[in-house]
TrEMBL record, chain B:
GO cellular component terms given for this protein: plasma membrane
Organism placement in taxonomy: unclassified sequences, metagenomes, ecological metagenomes
Domain ABC transporter span(s) in chain numbering: 5-243, 260-505
UniProt source species: bioreactor metagenome
Protein name, as recorded: Galactose/methyl galactoside import ATP-binding protein MglA
Cell compartments where the protein resides: Cell membrane
Pfam families: ABC_tran (PF00005)
UniProt membrane topology term: Peripheral membrane protein
TrEMBL record, chain C:
Taxonomic placement: unclassified sequences, metagenomes, ecological metagenomes
Entry's localization field: Cell membrane
GO molecular function, one term: transmembrane transporter activity
Coiled-coil intervals: none
Region described as Disordered: 376-398
Segments crossing the lipid bilayer: 28-50, 70-92, 104-121, 127-148, 160-179, 207-226, 247-268, 330-352
Pfam short name (any one): BPD_transp_2
CDD domains in the cross-refs: TM_PBP1_transp_TpRbsC_like
One GO location term (cellular component): plasma membrane
Main location as per UniProt: membrane
Biased composition (Gly residues): 380-398
Protein name (Swiss-Prot/TrEMBL): ABC transporter permease
Length: 339, 519, 398
């Protein structure tokens, strides 16, 4: 078994699949990270992805352009995020419950639209939809091993990598990043500084909508070449768990989504050696929960050790990280629902 | 007289129907420091929120420089030159001081939308230099002291061009030295031509710092005086609307055996500050031990640990010989510790639940209320609740109505009614009369004395010095998370002396303090 | 409609009277409006996509009553969503958000299948044992998100959704590897023993004894929530967890126990569905009745007493939609879309409290006007200030 897994890890094909299956999760996780930083939980990411995947397929089929399809998909995804914002921010609805509602709306709605257009409820194969191109990199592809991993990936895999950099800059270098953190960490402080928290939250919702839109389009126009019902397969929910593991940073999101990507890719291989596919399919979700628990355990431990040291005078006063940082604040990631 | 900022008939009704400001006329002149005093819930904060545009008035007008203004957000107020330093700092802990200072009006690199940290630091240092409010621009807010955070708050307002500064109870969190330093800085600002509205309920500070003083009570403006022409008694009377009860009638305490011994308790808060620093004390039957101190000096943490609501990092809590250190509130209650929580809105009651449910929350499992197979004897519960409603004079239509529909005083009576009928030997009481009307205060005080006379051990924590002094048999003073003084006989000390301890200017030696353990 | 009355006799007395009435009346009205709005929206959608909208609309709205079979089917369709709705009432009373009932229900069905296929028990006992086992499995699963939240502050909705995938895949695995009927081309378990079936209530319809079991559970859950100490603990914890902890209620165990009970009900629901409606496990995908439970519980305003009403409403919509989609060109899934919209509306405090907020504002202004009219000297309050109190409480916090 260990030999087998070592063999898999050595194969370039495995890592090719890892990148491919990490990309969509990474994109939505970034979306979850940025909204959570602003103090709003976007549970509708799943719905956003579904609409993006469907709209991308439909529009690309009718216009013949994958690009127009993708634009339309992103637009649809952003619309869902905006509806969430409208209800959660303007009409005082519980954001999490709205997420549940919008996901129901989307699971039913996408199938409804698909059926109304094609007469099929399961798959969009009757639509001549387009594919977002795969990128072969001239010289790199000849490099042994690495070439096989990097070259030939879909454009969106590269876009996901770019998104990490972009979100990192937005959060840490751009002006809006400070405003997002202020809104999420101390909303009263943000208000007092003349920042409109509702605007900031809407901004992050739009960004998360764009990211989920790209991810959704990838699923139906790259990862596979059709829309199938429930194509997002819970990735929008996984993102909300991965976001906690990511600890509120774009770099953290890479690691968090890799947990899912590595297991997801491994699943394909494990299936080949006769392990039941159902159990393997459950693995990524299980590992996401475990990753979440482990990360929280580590953080709690570190915190309590520091507190004790502080009391014993081993650390200067005020050298503790505030609880608010790292996604464990009340209004944010972990606290959630109750209270 | 020409006033810089003035209000006329300002009223504020909150959506829940609360009338927080009633027909308030208020005025402040250019270049003065105006004190605004009033008890908790008198409407000071609401008035300031109206002036600062955080809330909009239900009726009435605000004039700035003689022109009526209508702020739709604090942004408008800032633009008009009004700045506010909130009681709870409006800072983002994980950002640096410089980043906090420029938040909302950030310097940018050229025409990009990238944040220019260096420029922000430069601005902070320059501004600090100019007004003599020096701060560490690059440090993160979590890493600096409370007084530096406050300086940063003042700088933030100045950075935004504030000519009028509103300071909401700025000294509540400061040491005496820091308070003095703040006063010097504020006077310097006045000489720069700034106008300052200084909110406080500490008369000493008002008399030390302010030119004029306005008094609010019950949402109304009661009066305004030149500080030089008025004495403290007048102001104090206006604040409370009655002659201050300097003494509560009570007999001498007959202190009995020790029932609760707490040793060496410590607590570190979320900001990494030692909120409670190795504190020990003991409670005796038939005695009220008062705890005085400026708010936020560890009293809340002490109460929370003694009642099981927070965990101590060290030491022990022993109740009637049983070690109950860091046990859950339920265990402490079963051992006979009742607890009046300082915040009745978020902890002391469940607002959406009925009065009856609130009154039964600590005893629904007692045999008289719980039948077989987990069924509750609802008739018995209703009867018991109605009885408490009657004896504690809770004004309501029925015990089935939600607690949220009650007034502050009646809400507090629900808490007290429950805790005082809990058949506990030890009562931990925090801020029993905060935001409660006069009639209810006297009622509550009488009840506490009654409890003591029945032989209960009482720990009384209140930020109302008058209250603790008149109620307590013995006293401890807390400062910076430590007990700094113990008075076996509360009447043997004066408010002046207590003030020195509260402000950390004086400290008894460990031996004297240790007497609180009665060993 | 009652404004005129308010100004009738003693103004203060009648205002107060209305206060209590309206607090109960208005939410019901808003809930009803949301339901009507959803139906209208559904009709609108039919007109957009259908080539024969009139027939489709007729089938949608009247379908459940056009044939006796349909009506009995409606009653049958109420059963699973009554169970998940009840389960979620408990969760929502606790003010948690978890959807783990989905796993409980699904796994309950799997456990019942195993027992229905493998065990030989006398009729009557057979489904009962299956229900109990399914309930226990569902209950244990139900506690997982609560434990994760309490120990590691994991958002219970997120973790429950993860678990739902895990248990769904695990359940399919069990069916495929241990219970599969290899003679079938589709995924199906081996047929249940005859003794496993619940009796039919009406011959030649699908209406089975599970309907009565569901009704019994409506009563049981009502009693549990409003008459027992556990229900009391759950309600107080939901009303204010900080207060509950302060009053000595063991909030962590209460939350876990409530989730157990909720999952238990979900698990039984799964078992009842199997033994009442099917001859073998034939679900090709997870029916996700928990998501329907959300709307059932919300329409019932998390009060189990009203669960039958909202379950009836949802079943009515679903059966109508089903009937319509079989005879026309509108996909059944549009019902899920409408469900989403209803939840959105019901979740919005601004909408839910629209009347109340308006009323409070009006009262407040009236109070203020009265105050302004009163002589300004009325400050020397001797306790007369109590009338407008409330101010004191909220002000203290500010």
């Amino acid at each position: 078994m260990i030999e087998f897994i070592a063999g898999v890890f050595a194969s370039s094909n495995y890592w090719f699949i890892v990148l491919r299956s990490t990309a969509p999760i990474l994109l939505v996780t970034l979306g979850a990270v940025i909204t959570e930083q602003a103090g709003i939980k976007n549970m509708a990411l799943e719905g956003s992805m579904l609409w993006a995947a469907l709209t991308g397929v439909i529009v690309s089929a009718f216009t013949g352009s994958p690009w127009l399809g993708m634009m339309a998909g992103i637009l649809a995804s952003v619309t869902i995020a905006l509806i969430l914002g409208l209800f959660a921010l303007k009409l005082d609805a519980n954001a999490v419950l709205c997420g549940v509602a919008l996901n129901l709306f989307s699971t039913g709605g996408t199938v409804f639209v698909l059926y109304s257009l094609t007469g099929d409820k399961g798959i969009s194969s009757s639509l001549p939809s387009k594919i977002i191109p795969f990128i072969k990199i001239p010289f790199v592809e000849t490099i042994p091993w690495i070439g096989k991993v990097i070259s030939g990936q879909n454009l969106i895999v590269w876009l996901a990598a770019f998104a990490v950099v972009a979100i990192h800059f937005v959060l840490n270098k751009a002006t809006i990043g400070r405003r997002i953190k202020a809104t999420g960490e101390n909303i009263e402080a943000a208000k007092a500084a003349g920042i409109d928290p509702v605007k900031v939250k809407f901004f992050t919702l739009i960004v998360s909508g764009i990211l989920a839109g790209i991810a959704g389009c990838f699923l139906s126009m790259g990862y596979t070449s059709n829309f199938t019902s429930g194509i997002a397969a819970g990735r929008g929910y996984v993102a909300n768990a991965a976001q906690v593991v990511a600890g509120g940073t774009a770099i953290g999101a890479i690691f968090a989504s890799l947990i899912f990507g590595l297991t997801d890719a491994m699943a394909t291989y494990l299936q080949n050696i006769g392990l039941p596919p159902e159990l393997i399919q459950a693995l990524p979700y299980l590992v996401t929960i475990l990753g979440f628990i482990v990360v929280t355990l580590i953080r709690d431990r570190r915190e309590s050790i520091r507190k004790r040291q502080l009391l014993e005078g081993k650390l200067p006063k005020g050298s503790l990280k505030p609880i608010a940082v790292g996604g464990s604040n009340g209004n944010g990631s972990l606290g959630g629902g109750a209270a | 007289m020409d006033y810089l900022l003035r209000t006329e008939g300002l009223s504020k009704v909150y959506p829940n129907g609360t009338l927080a400001n009633k027909q308030v006329d208020f005025a402040v002149a250019k270049g003065e420091i105006l004190g605004l005093v009033g008890e908790n819930g008198a409407g000071k904060s609401t008035l300031m929120k109206l002036l600062y545009g955080e809330e909009s008035p239900s009726s009435g007008t605000i004039y700035l420089d003689g022109k009526p203004i209508g702020f739709s957000s604090s942004q408008d107020a800032i633009a008009a030159g009004i700045g506010m330093v909130h009681q709870h700092f409006m800072l983002v802990p994980s950002l640096s001081l410089a980043e906090n200072l420029v938040l909302g009006q950030e310097p940018k690199k050229g025409k990009s939308s990238f944040f220019d940290l260096e420029k922000a630091v430069a601005i902070t240092e320059e501004l600090g230099e100019k007004y003599n409010l020096k701060v560490f621009a690059r440090a993160r807010v979590v890493d600096v002291s409370v007084s530096m955070r406050q300086k940063l708050e003042i700088l933030k307002a100045l950075y935004r061009g504030a000519k009028i500064l509103i300071l909401d109870e700025p000294t509540a969190v400061l040491t005496p030295q820091e308070t003095d330093e703040l006063f010097v800085e504020l006077q310097a600002l006045r000489s720069h031509g700034h106008t300052i509205i200084f909110i406080s309920h500490k008369l000493n500070e008002i008399f030390k710092l302010c030119d004029r003083v306005s008094v609010m009570r019950d949402g109304r403006m009661i009066g305004t005086h030149q500080v030089a022409d008025v004495d403290r008694q007048t102001i104090s009377n206006e604040m409370v609307g009655r002659e201050v009860l300097l003494s509560v009638r009570k007999d001498k305490a007959k202190a009995g055996e020790k029932v609760l011994v707490a040793k060496d308790l410590s607590y570190i808060d979320d900001f990494g500050i030692a909120a409670l620093d190795h504190v020990s004390l003991a409670l005796r039957k038939g005695e009220i031990l008062g705890v005085v101190g400026v708010d936020g000096n560890g009293q809340s943490e002490l109460v929370r640990i003694l009642t099981g609501s927070a965990r101590s990092l060290s030491g022990s809590v022993v109740v009637k010989g049983r070690d109950l250190t860091n046990q859950k509130p339920g265990a402490l209650r079963r051992a006979g510790v009742a607890h009046i929580a300082e915040d009745r809105m978020t902890v002391g009651t469940a607002l959406p639940a009925s009065i009856e449910d609130n009154l039964m929350a600590d005893r629904y499992f007692h045999p008289e209320y719980k039948g077989r197979a987990g069924f509750l004897k609802q008739a018995a519960m209703a009867r018991a609740a109605t009885e408490i409603v009657t004896t504690f004079d809770i004004r309501c239509k029925s015990a089935k109505q939600p607690v949220s529909s009650l007034s502050g005083g009646n809400m507090q009576k629900v808490v007290i009614g429950r805790e005082f009928t809990a058949d506990a030997d030890i009562l931990v009481i925090a801020q029993p009369t905060r935001g409660v009307d006069v009639g209810a205060i006297e009622f509550i005080h009488k009840r506490i004395i009654e409890m003591r006379d029945q032989g209960k051990a009482v720990l009384l924590v209140s930020s109302d010095l008058q209250e603790v002094m008149s109620m307590s048999d013995s006293l401890v003073v807390m400062n910076s998370g430590k007990i700094v003084a113990y008075f076996e006989d509360a009447s043997a000390t004066t408010d002046k002396e207590l003030g020195l301890y509260m402000l950390g200017l004086k400290k008894q030696n460990p031996e004297e303090i240790g007497k609180v353990l009665h060993e | 409609m009652s404004d005129a009355k308010t100004r009738g006799p003693g103004p203060l007395a009648s205002v107060k009277l209305f206060f209590t009435d309206r607090d109960k009346l208005e939410p019901a009205v808003i809930t009803l409006l949301a339901a009507i709005f959803a139906i209208l929206m559904g009709v609108g959608l039919i007109f957009v996509v259908s080539k024969d909208p009139v027939t489709s609309t007729k089938n949608f709205l009247l379908g459940p009553f056009l044939r006796t079979y349909n009506f009995y089917y409606l009653l049958v369709a109420m059963v699973p969503i009554t169970f998940t709705g009840l389960a979620l009432c408990i969760i929502y009373q606790l003010k948690y958000m978890s959807l783990i009932v989905d796993s409980s229900f699904y796994t309950g069905a799997i456990v019942a299948t195993a027992i229905g296929v493998r065990l030989a028990l006398p009729a009557g006992w057979h489904p009962a044992v299956a229900m109990l086992a399914a309930g226990l499995a569902g209950g244990l699963i139900g506690t997982l998100p609560a434990i994760l939240k309490i120990k590691w502050r994991a958002n219970e909705l997120v973790s429950s959704l993860m678990f739902n995938y895990v248990f769904y895949f695990f359940g399919s695995f069990v069916i495929l590897y241990f219970l599969r009927d290899r003679n079938q081309t589709i995924l199906a378990s081996m047929p249940f023993q005859k003794t496993f079936a619940l009796p039919k209530l009406v011959e030649n319809t699908q209406l089975h004894a599970g309907f009565i079991i569901a009704a019994v559970f409506v009563a049981l859950v009502s009693i549990f929530l409003f008459r027992t100490k556990w229900g009391y603990q759950i309600r107080i914890t939901g009303a204010n967890p900080k207060f509950a902890a302060y009053a000595g209620i063991p909030v962590a165990s209460v939350a876990i126990f409530a989730h157990f009970v909720s999952g238990f009900i979900g698990g039984i629901g799964g078992a009842v569905e199997m033994s009442g409606l099917y001859r073998a496990f034939i679900w090709q995908m997870n029916p996700s009745y928990a998501w329907d439970g959300v709307i059932v519980a919300m329409l019932a305003r998390k009060n189990p007493k009203f669960v039958p009403v909202s379950a009836f409403f949802l079943a009515y919509m679903r059966v109508g939609a089903d009937f319509m989609s079989r005879r026309g060109d509108v996909a059944f899934e549009f019902i899920t879309l409408l469900q989403g919209i209803i939840i959105l509306i019901l979740a919005s405090d601004k909408i839910a409290n629209y009347f109340k907020a308006r009323r409070l504002r009006r009262n407040a202004f009236a109070a203020e006007a009265a105050l302004a009219a009163a002589p300004a000297g009325g400050v020397r309050s001797d306790g007369g200030g109590k009338g407008t109190a409330g101010a004191a409480g909220t002000g203290g916090k500010a």
